[in-house]
Amino acid sequence: MSQNKTKAAEICVPKLGLTMTEGTIVEWLKKPGDKVVAGDVLYVLETDKIENEIEADRDGTLGDIVIAAGETVDVGMVIAQWTDGDPASTAHPATSSPRPEPQAELPLTVSSDTNDKPMNGSRVIASPHARKLARARSIDLTMLTGSGPGGRIVAADVETAVSIPKTEKPKLKGRPAMARPVGAQSAPRMPPSTAKLPAKQRTIAKRMQVSKQEIPHFYVAADADISLLLDNHERLKHLNGYAGLTLNHWVIAAAGMALEANSAWRRTLSGEAITAHPQADVAVAVALPGSLIAPVLRNAGAMTLLEISAASRALADAARNSSLNNEQVGGGVMCVSNLGAYPIRYLTPIIIPGHSCILGVGRTQEIFRPDSDGQPKLCRELGVVLACDHRVLNGQDGAELICAIKELLEDPLRILAEPRRS
Fold first, then answer.
1. Number of other CB atoms surrounding residue 237 within 10 Å
2. φ, ψ for residue 219 (rounded to 5)?
3. Cβ-based neighbour number of residue 294 at 10 Å
4. CA-to-CA distance for 281 and 333, rounded, in angstroms?
5. What is the Cα Rg of the chain in Å?
6. In the chain, what are the helix, strand and coil shares in percent, each to the nearest 5?
7. Between the CA of residue 147 and those of 134, 144, 298, 302, what are the distances in Å?
8. Phi and psi (nearest 5°) for 210?
9. Residues 355, 125 contacting (CB under 8 angstroms)
10. Is 62 helix (H, G, I), strand (E, B) or coil?
């Protein structure tokens, strides 16, 4: 038998996006010695965007696992071996569609599934495969303690819960009992604790550091009087199809329409090349417990307000259910980040690498301004800040873009009535 045939084939970390440099092994779904059929999921790989189930592209027997779950590895690194077959064999992601360049996201995988109910104000963190197993076996994930990275519930935790006899109880979540201190003076002084930064947060920290160091940011700010918009908003919410409409959907619509109006604003920088985008793809920051992710609304500039409302809610649900695919998290020209739920006037955001700008949205403020006769008039103003990449957009570009967004927000009938390109 030739050396090539006896040599164990290597399983390497695949590159799932143009900017991907590393990933974290969330869990292995096969163990050494398992017989594997092409298409079986070997392991779950977490990138800075989403979790990916990586399938085997051949039949064989899994040999040594070199990298254990919880470890962060570089693209191309050997993580396991086959005990038989072609040494060139490897594993591939479960989806074979082309993957656009990923953008910075901000961590966490959360589910609003029936098995992932909120508990004490928090949400369950579980891998996609663990949720599938839990649904199939009617296991309540809120009753389990995760053994994966960052306390994530993995498939092995569900299998363990299934195998425990009914007379026993699985290890449950809960706060350990603590002795009540006699008084403030007798309470022991507790030293600060330290913990390793979770892999996804570490990736985001690196990308945000790169953004601030390598992208020359400049900022332009404006206050949009959205009194008329808010009046229309309240009326629309009572119509069929608009029940889920939010103020952020109006902002996304205005941003998309503004970008659609001028191709010069739809440019991004990749290396030393300027990319001109044919349509206004707008990313939307979605808050998750302890993290953030920015899925992309494709061709937002050609969508109606109702379409934006429906599509945005679908993307947010997918983000919270950990069911986003690579097509939904890559690319884009601008991101909209809204912190209007908090009592802040302005948000000065950091540009997501790969984008050319990001719009920070604060909270609506009531303020008196003089009207045309010099009399005080109560206005409801929305503070918006646009961060721009000075390598792509100059000061005039930034000023004109934020003014275009401001004008649309102050004249909401244009958002409702203006025709969209197909």
1. 12
2. -125, 140
3. 24
4. 6
5. 25
6. 30, 25, 45
7. 15, 9, 37, 45
8. -60, -40
9. no
10. strand
Q: Which of 407, 256, 397, 421 lies closest to 335 in space, CA to CA?
A: 256
Pairwise CA distance, residues 131 & 115, whole Å: 7
Per-residue pLDDT band at 94 (split at 50, 70, 90): low
Q: How far apart (Å, rounded) are the C-alpha atoms in residues 230 and 235?
A: 9
Q: Which helix (H) or strand (E) holds 311?
A: helix 305-320
Q: Compute the residue count for the chain.
A: 422
Q: pTM score, two decimals?
A: 0.64
349 three-state secondary structure: coil
Q: Report the distance separating Cα 283 and Cα 314, nearest Å.
A: 13
| Long-range CB pairs of 375-379, under 8 A, 24+ apart, other chains included | 379/225, 379/227
- State how far the Cα of 393 lies from the Cα of 334, in Å rounded to an integer: 12
What is the C-alpha to C-alpha distance for residues 265 and 334, in angstroms, rounded to an integer? 9
Q: Helical H runs in 138-287?
A: 155-163, 199-214, 227-236, 247-261
- Beta-sheet pairing, 291-293 with 286-288: antiparallel
One-letter amino acid of 46: E
Q: What is the mean pLDDT of residues 42-71?
A: 85
Compute φ and ψ for 387, nearest 5 degrees: -95, 130
Residue listed under structure tokens 């098995």? 115
Residues in contact with 138: Cβ distance below 8 Å, sequence separation at least 6, in sequence order: none
Is there a contact between 270 and 358 (Cβ–Cβ < 8 Å)?
no
Q: Which of 347, 329, 330 is nearest to 338 (CA)?
A: 347
CA atoms of 282 and 308, how far apart (whole Å): 11
Average pLDDT value for residue range 63-80: 88
Q: What does the pLDDT look like over 212-265, one tens digit per residue? A: 999 999 999 999 999 999 999 999 988 888 888 999 999 999 999 999 999 999
Q: How far apart are CA 161 and CA 173, in angstroms?
A: 13
**Residue/partner pairs of 406-410 with CB below 8 Å, 24 or more apart:** 406/222, 406/224, 408/253, 408/254, 408/257, 408/258, 409/224, 409/226, 409/229, 409/250, 409/251, 409/254, 409/382, 409/384, 410/224, 410/225, 410/226, 410/228, 410/229
